[in-house]
């Protein structure tokens, strides 16, 4: 086993300015992105170089459960990939025994690439569905027999048929929403007959009558059974079923995978959590990474509860908080922190206050426009200025490093037109996948043929990779200069130009590589759906932008009714909309513009208001009550005056957190105990018994019920904490200043194991040990 060098700080690490970009990819070069194709570390210790102290703690904490609370831009992927690589390179983890799971093929592909570059090839990095499907395909013949049923990639057609059989007419939007309800039901393990009750209890706004949706759901399931097919959610359900029913198969999986890492843990559904538990068994070799403030997919069944309750399930877990933001300027980070300071709810109680590690940049720009077309035109004009070269008086920002983000996809049309009019290239994220575009598929076939020596130009056989690629793609429309205007011709050129740039980067970072190596790289990227950078402004919804970043971000359409969206009714739905805006803000590295239109169309009444989430943050708006984030991790604790005297005064408390698992407590009884009911108790039974006898004697003297002295929960909390000073006793909920003055000396003596004189001997005494029949707390409302 390698020596633990977590405190070693060699030259070139974070303390000497050597922290590499937290979010740059080492597998997929992004032009001149720092860290792309960096040299493989020479040994395990070198894997730790360049990590900050908290990232280093993540990387070296390889035993037991670990929970990483990672703010936006803090290098969470870097931390967990270096953790895996350090364990592999140090000989503490076998590559084939590690399973890293995340939520998108792109993220899984990037993780595999980083691990390969760090010398930890062979580690499995997959999505939940991909990992489950592989296991299902392998074990199905043994568990069920035959082949796994065919997977239906688009369930919407089956849902439409199910609705028709139920004599329900659904328009296009309703069909999409009902399909979403079926997906939500399956990941929350809700069967059709229970859907109406569970949906009502969950506060879901069903797109149709709940009973109607339940019938469509049941018919949909029957159609699948009749045709012998399964859907995406069935992959998880069936894998869970196999592992639950066949202990021999579950044991085989657990022998294979002995160490688990879960990224974006705030997004796990109950079904994914159940699968993870079955993979783990009774072990705790698990590292999870997440940020409750980036929970924006609750409509799909995702919940941050598993992240927030992690220490309840794993009491001995190590918790590491990453708050150093390497992505955004202090100005952007300040706005992001300001948004969260106004948040409410359980996720907000665990929010992290980010600390920018970058130099200062421009302040965020707030822009109000008369109408939506004017907003789109103004945005396009500002983007045009940004992409103009510096020598021509512009910002010199590449178009590929600019994004326009909006709440719903329907907003994109205005911006597509405005950018086209301004001669600015753009790409729609969420549209056709890069590697599925006809010109990209064709280019791949041509490059593969050239790599096999079938190039049409024999003179290129000995040429370098970029020259070979330019020659091949030049036969299909690529030219050194882009075509004028926009449209299909420009889109085709942009796709081919992205492949040319990738070839340049690949050749520059892999001396001696061949065209065959590049083709293999393209195949791996296609499998991971990790497209190269297209030189155009990105248009995307806020949801689609999660996990991405740009030098300049334009957040548009920020009006009430859009952010938060009109159908967000409950407090939790409103808070999720706030988190969605937070995600948008934290996508920006340097430039950030937030805009809104006062009316929809030119000449319309200027009745719209900017989003409430910017109140107190944008210039000229009225501040709202904000709560301190409380430094690293945002934990707020009650405090008491120093010293051990009876005059200690408790100050106003912030949120009360469980002293075992750290979860914010809302139940009054749990708040008194300072722990969740289910968390382990450290009760000193002897102290508890002495306190109960003493309380009964005091209650008899007062002629009042025992709870007028201290409630059962308060007494239990005292016996668990066994305070030694008045200040420690004052921190326990239910011990007010008057009770501290009256009973404090007795309680501390009993906790210390000292005998007390008879209460009768002290009757009439104004000291801490006596009691008056006219006790001012005899009408206490403490229960």
Shape: globular
Tell me the β content: 5-15%
The helix fraction, in percent, is: 40-55%
Spans where pLDDT lies below 50 across 5 or more residues: 1-37, 628-655, 759-783
Domain UvrD-like helicase C-terminal: 330-590
GO molecular function: 3'-5' DNA helicase activity; ATP binding; ATP hydrolysis activity; DNA binding
Family: Belongs to the helicase family. UvrD subfamily.
EC number: 5.6.2.4
Write structural notes for this entry.
By secondary structure, the chain is α/β, with parallel strands linked by helices. The protein has five domains: 45-143 and 237-320, Rossmann fold (3-Layer(aba) Sandwich), CATH 3.40.50; 150-227; 365-431 and 535-614, Rossmann fold, CATH 3.40.50.300; 434-528, no CATH class; 668-752, DNA polymerase, domain 1, CATH 1.10.150. The chain contains 28 helices and 16 strands. The strands form four sheets. Strands 3-2-6-7-1-8 form a six-stranded parallel beta sheet, with helices on both faces. Strands 11-16-15-12-14-13 form a six-stranded parallel beta sheet. Helix 4 (105-117) links the parallel strand 2 (98-102) and strand 3 (124-127). Helix 10 runs parallel beside helix 12 and helix 17 (372-387) packs across helix 18 (412-421). The two termini are 55 Å apart. The model is unreliable at 1-37, 628-655 and 759-783 (pLDDT under 50).
Keywords:
single chain, 783 residues, alpha/beta, Rossmann fold, 5 domains, 6-stranded parallel sheet, 28 helices, 16 strands, disordered N terminus, disordered C terminus
């Amino acid at each position: 086993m390698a020596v633990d060098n977590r405190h070693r700080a060699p030259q070139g690490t974070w303390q000497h300015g050597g922290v590499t970009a937290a979010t740059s990819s080492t597998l997929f070069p992004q032009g001149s992105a720092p860290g792309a194709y960096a040299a493989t570390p020479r040994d395990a210790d070198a894997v730790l170089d360049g990590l900050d102290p908290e990232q280093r703690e993540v990387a070296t904490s390889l035993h037991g459960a670990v929970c990483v609370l990672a703010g936006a831009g803090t290098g969470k992927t870097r931390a967990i990939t270096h953790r895996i690589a350090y364990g592999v390179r140090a000989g503490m983890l076998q590559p084939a025994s590690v399973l890293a799971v995340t939520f998108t093929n792109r993220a899984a592909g990037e993780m595999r690439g980083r691990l390969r570059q760090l010398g930890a090839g062979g580690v499995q990095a997959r999505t939940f569905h991909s990992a489950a499907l592989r296991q299902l395909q392998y074990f199905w013949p043994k568990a069920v027999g035959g082949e796994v049923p065919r997977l239906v990639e688009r369930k919407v057609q089956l849902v439409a048929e199910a609705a028709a059989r139920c004599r329900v007419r659904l328009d296009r939007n309703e069909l999409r929403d009902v399909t979403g309800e079926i997906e939500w039901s399956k990941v929350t393990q809700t069967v059709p007959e229970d859907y109406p009750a569970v949906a009502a209890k969950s506060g879901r706004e069903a797109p149709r009558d709940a009973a109607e949706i339940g019938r469509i759901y049941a018919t949909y399931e029957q159609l699948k059974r009749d045709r012998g097919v399964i859907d995406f959610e069935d992959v998880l359900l069936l894998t869970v079923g196999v592992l639950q029913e066949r202990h021999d198969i579950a044991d085989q999986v657990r022998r294979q995978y002995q160490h688990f890492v879960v990224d974006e843990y705030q997004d796990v559904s109950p079904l994914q959590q159940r699968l993870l538990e079955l993979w783990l068994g009774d072990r705790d070799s698990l590292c999870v990474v997440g940020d409750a403030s980036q929970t924006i997919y609750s409509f799909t069944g995702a919940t941050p509860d598993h992240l927030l309750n992690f220490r309840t399930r794993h009491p001995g877990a190590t918790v590491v908080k990453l708050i150093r933001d390497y992505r955004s300027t202090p100005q952007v980070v300040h706005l992001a922190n300001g948004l969260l300071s106004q948040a409410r709810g359980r996720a907000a109680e665990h929010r992290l206050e980010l600390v920018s590690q970058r130099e200062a940049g421009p302040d965020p720009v707030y822009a109000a426009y008369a109408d939506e077309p004017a907003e789109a035109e103004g945005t396009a004009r500002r983007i045009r200025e940004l992409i103009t070269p510096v020598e021509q008086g512009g910002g010199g920002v590449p178009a590929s490093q600019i994004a326009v983000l909006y709440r719903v996809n329907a907003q994109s049309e205005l911006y597509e037109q405005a950018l086209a009019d301004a001669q600015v290239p753009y790409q729609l994220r969420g549209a056709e996948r890069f590697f599925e575009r006809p010109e990209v598929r064709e280019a791949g076939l041509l490059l593969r043929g050239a790599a096999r020596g079938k190039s049409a130009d024999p003179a290129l056989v000995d040429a370098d990779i970029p020259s070979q690629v330019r020659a091949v793609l030049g036969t299909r429309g690529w030219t050194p200069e882009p075509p004028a205007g926009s449209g299909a011709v420009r889109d085709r050129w942009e796709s081919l130009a992205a492949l040319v740039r990738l070839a340049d980067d690949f050749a520059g970072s892999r001396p001696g590589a061949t065209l065959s190596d590049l083709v293999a790289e393209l195949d791996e990227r296609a499998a991971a759906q990790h497209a190269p950078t297209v030189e155009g402004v990105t248009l995307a919804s806020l949801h689609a932008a999660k996990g991405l970043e740009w030098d300049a971000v334009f957040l548009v359409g920020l009006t009430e009714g859009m952010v938060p969206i009109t159908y967000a009714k409950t407090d939790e739905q409103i808070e999720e909309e706030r988190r969605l805006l937070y995600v948008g803000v934290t996508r920006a590295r340097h430039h950030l513009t937030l805009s809104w239109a006062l009316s929809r169309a030119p000449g319309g009444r200027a009745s719209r208001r900017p989003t409430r989430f910017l109140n107190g943050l944008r210039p000229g708006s009225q501040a709202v009550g904000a709560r301190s984030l409380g430094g690293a991790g945002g934990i707020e604790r009650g405090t008491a005056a120093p010293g051990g005297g009876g005059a200690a005064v408790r100050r106003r408390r912030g949120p009360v957190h469980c002293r075992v698992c750290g979860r914010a407590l809302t139940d009054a009884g749990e708040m008194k105990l300072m722990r969740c009911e289910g968390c382990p108790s450290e009760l000193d039974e002897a102290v508890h018994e002495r306190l109960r006898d003493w309380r009964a004697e005091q209650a008899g003297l007062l002629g009042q019920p025992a709870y007028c002295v201290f409630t059962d929960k308060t007494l239990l909390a005292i016996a668990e904490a066994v305070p030694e000073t008045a200040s420690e006793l004052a921190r326990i909920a239910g011990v007010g200043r008057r009770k501290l003055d009256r009973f404090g000396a007795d309680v501390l003596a009993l906790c210390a194991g000292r005998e007390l004189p008879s209460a009768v001997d002290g009757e009439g005494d104004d000291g801490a040990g006596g009691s008056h029949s006219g006790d001012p707390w005899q009408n206490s409302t403490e229960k």
